[in-house]
Amino acid sequence: MVGVHFRDLFKQGNAAGILFGQPLHRVDASGEASLTPEGENRATPYHLEAYYRLKVSDNVSITPGAFVLFNPEGNSNNDTTTVGVLRTTFTF
């Protein structure tokens, strides 16, 4: 995975980042195990993530973000999946 993080983006205390990589996935199987069940199209999965941390006050920040998964479960028949996230952090 590779990523870039930007401090103090647009305003002091705010931050943003983007990450791209390849999640762990099985590339080999031995014995009785089958690597690819019938009907699956093996493909390499990829992960893309972006976020922006907005500092609301000295003690509160809100971080919206999104994850995109390409070829989930290593199967190109699976639709690309997007997940939105929202995190609130309280610091005391």
Summarize the structure.
The protein is mainly β.
Q: Would you kindly provide a written description of the structure presented here, covering whatever features stand out?
A:
With 92 residues, the protein is an all-beta fold. It is 0% helix and 48% strand. It is built from no helices and 5 strands. A hairpin with a 7-residue loop joins strand 1 and strand 2. It is elongated, with a radius of gyration of 18 Å. 1% of the residues are buried. The mean pLDDT is 87.
Largest sheet: 5 strands, antiparallel
Strand order of the largest sheet: 1-2-3-4-5
Count of all domains: 1
Form type: elongated
Level of helix content?
under 10%
The proportion of strand residues reads: over 45%
| Tally of DSSP β-strands | 5
- How far apart are the first and last residues' alpha carbons, in Å? 32 Å
Number of distinct helices: 0
Structural class: mainly beta
Please mark out the parts with pLDDT under 50 across 5 or more consecutive residues, or reply none: none
Order of helices and strands: EEEEE
State mean pLDDT (0 to 100 scale). Answer: 87
Mind telling me the C-alpha Rg?
18 Å
